[in-house]
Amino acid sequence: MESEMGAEHASKLLHARLRDSRWLTGIGVGMHESRPAIVVYVKRWPGRDLDFLTSGWMGVPVIIQKMGAPRPLRVLGASNSANGNHFAIG
What we know:
By secondary structure, this protein is an alpha+beta fold. Helices cover 17% and strands 36% of the residues.
């Protein structure tokens, strides 16, 4: 499953499995060592909850990235969006 399409499909299945985890911020697809990889963004380190991913997921490498939770941010002078809010990572 080397293709980006395979990584995209695998990431959706992984998201379905992890979506109720309180530490999960999101899941995306990126590149790692010149091949597609799944990136799991977490608010806090989940401990052993992700040990099953040490060898990857469905043949795709997995990278765990700790980050803050997204929060709305009011940006003055920014272009108009639907509700005037933009998102920042913090």
